[in-house]
Amino acid sequence: MKQIYTITAFAENRPGVLYRIADLFLRRKVNIESLTVSEIEHTGQSRFTILVHAEPLLVEKLVKQLYRIIEITKVIDSLDQSLIIKEIALIKITAKNLERRREIEQLVHLANGKIAAVNQSYLVVEKTGTEEEIDSLHELLKPFGIKEFVRSGRIVVFK
């Protein structure tokens, strides 16, 4: 049975590592639902956080094959209950009049979001939280006319 897995891979920060990781998933015909890459506290090291929806046996094979990539130093596959998970989203909303802005600001405040930017014709909302919290705020703001919506992808720390 397919489950949602977060695969965390630590690698030397060198050109081509991302390509080799993506190619491995492509060859196995596994869709990467979310991918976040950043440098970590160790100089010259990067952390790849990869979200996949796959069978446990396939994830086990992917982990073993990731270790074959020379630059990979450590790989951990996890289910959601062993992780603290967050994303960040930016939502640009049409808001040309004061009444509409106030209504949007109230919703954003109730959802623990922030107003990141204001213009004469729009607001940019910033929301950090779980995937469900971001989805919920997105749904609440749809009736106001979302011009743009972008989210970071999953970042995690282990419990």
TrEMBL record:
Coiled coil: none annotated. Pathway: Amino-acid biosynthesis; L-isoleucine biosynthesis; L-isoleucine from 2-oxobutanoate: step 1/4; Amino-acid biosynthesis; L-valine biosynthesis; L-valine from pyruvate: step 1/4. One of its GO terms (molecular function) is acetolactate synthase activity. Keywords: Amino-acid biosynthesis, Branched-chain amino acid biosynthesis, Transferase. Its EC number is 2.2.1.6. The keyword Oxidoreductase does not apply. Residues 6-81 form the ACT domain. GO terms for biological process: isoleucine biosynthetic process; L-valine biosynthetic process. Pfam families: ACT_AHAS_ss (PF22629), ALS_ss_C (PF10369). NCBIfam families: acolac_sm, PRK11895.1. Dimer of large and small chains. This is Acetolactate synthase small subunit. It comes from Candidatus Roizmanbacteria bacterium RIFCSPLOWO2_01_FULL_38_12.
